[in-house]
Amino acid sequence: MLMSAPRTSPDAGLPAAASDVVIDLRRASFGYGERPTVTDATLTVRRGEIVAVVGPNGSGKSTLMKGILGLNERTDGTLTLFGVPGDELRDRARLGYVPQRHTLSTSVRATAEEIVSTGRLPRIGWLGRLRATDRQIVARSLDVVGLADRAATEVSTLSGGQQRRVLIARALAGQPDVLIMDEPTAGVDAANQHVLADVLERLVERGVTMVIVTHELGALERLLTRIVVVDGGRIRFDGTPERYAAQRGAVHHDHDSHHHDDELRPHPSGVTVGPLDVRHDGRRR
Ligand SMILES: Nc1ncnc2c1ncn2[C@@H]1O[C@H](COP(=O)(O)OP(=O)(O)OP(=O)(O)O)[C@@H](O)[C@H]1O
């Protein structure tokens, strides 16, 4: 839990294993029109996990994330969040989201602190007023991303990487239990990627569960507990970083790769496929 006293989860009292599951997808399909973009996705994310989602451009990574967030249509399967059906989750602020390729508008005059304060809105309501505790949480969120000294700086004058960190701080200000980030390192140079990785490491230490869509595994790799490969709208691999590294030759996720059906076979469970038959938890069957 980030920066607050522990909250009681709706599934408190259940055995630890069950209450540890924050996201549970079973054979879920998501899309925007008639045809699903992501099909047959089965994925379980437990408390404290740091999961990277990788795959070629257009393979469905963002669609999968938006599906978990309820931002597109689920046409099949089930989605369970914190032990309740996804569409029945009342406290949406438990899911934090840093959207893709989103930097802050240069035409809006707002300070970093003001932008991060908007992250409190799900907690206080649109007409609510920030109280001292809210301001403290905003200040701590800026501190976590290393921008405490920029609180009063106009965001339009910050670099792209700093703006991404403001957006992460905004998501953190909502005190989410799980943070879904769509390419937080996109457009961030190598030096700043390490700064961002350090920021994420601090979040890991605070016990925040994270699902991170990324093309740049490099700087994040040391933090990850799992890697999920999405290709052609399907989850093609789900396993530990070690197993992913062992399979790297077979499971490409670079921009040029698309389908690898000769190397990656569909699994009836839709969970995991590949030369090594890897279970959901990364262990070999
Ligand atoms: N709002 C939308 N309406 C209709 N189709 C969409 C929408 N957003 C994405 N798509 C389509 O869904 C498919 C998967 O896109 P998605 O953005 O999920 O892929 P991605 O893996 O996140 O790609 P990238 O790495 O380029 O961000 C693409 O064919 C895309 O054109």
Automatic annotation (TrEMBL):
<dbReference type="InterPro" id="IPR050153">
    <property type="entry name" value="Metal_Ion_Import_ABC"/>
</dbReference>
<feature type="domain" description="ABC transporter">
    <location>
        <begin position="23"/>
        <end position="257"/>
    </location>
</feature>
<protein>
    <submittedName>
        <fullName>Zinc transport system ATP-binding protein</fullName>
    </submittedName>
</protein>
<dbReference type="Pfam" id="PF00005">
    <property type="entry name" value="ABC_tran"/>
</dbReference>
<dbReference type="GO" id="GO:0016887">
    <property type="term" value="F:ATP hydrolysis activity"/>
</dbReference>
<dbReference type="GO" id="GO:0005524">
    <property type="term" value="F:ATP binding"/>
</dbReference>
<feature type="compositionally biased region" description="Basic and acidic residues">
    <location>
        <begin position="251"/>
        <end position="266"/>
    </location>
</feature>
<feature type="region of interest" description="Disordered">
    <location>
        <begin position="248"/>
        <end position="285"/>
    </location>
</feature>
<dbReference type="InterPro" id="IPR003439">
    <property type="entry name" value="ABC_transporter-like_ATP-bd"/>
</dbReference>
<dbReference type="InterPro" id="IPR017871">
    <property type="entry name" value="ABC_transporter-like_CS"/>
</dbReference>
<dbReference type="InterPro" id="IPR027417">
    <property type="entry name" value="P-loop_NTPase"/>
</dbReference>
<keyword id="KW-0547">Nucleotide-binding</keyword>
<dbReference type="InterPro" id="IPR003593">
    <property type="entry name" value="AAA+_ATPase"/>
</dbReference>
<keyword id="KW-0067">ATP-binding</keyword>
<comment type="similarity">
    <text>Belongs to the ABC transporter superfamily.</text>
</comment>
<keyword id="KW-0813">Transport</keyword>
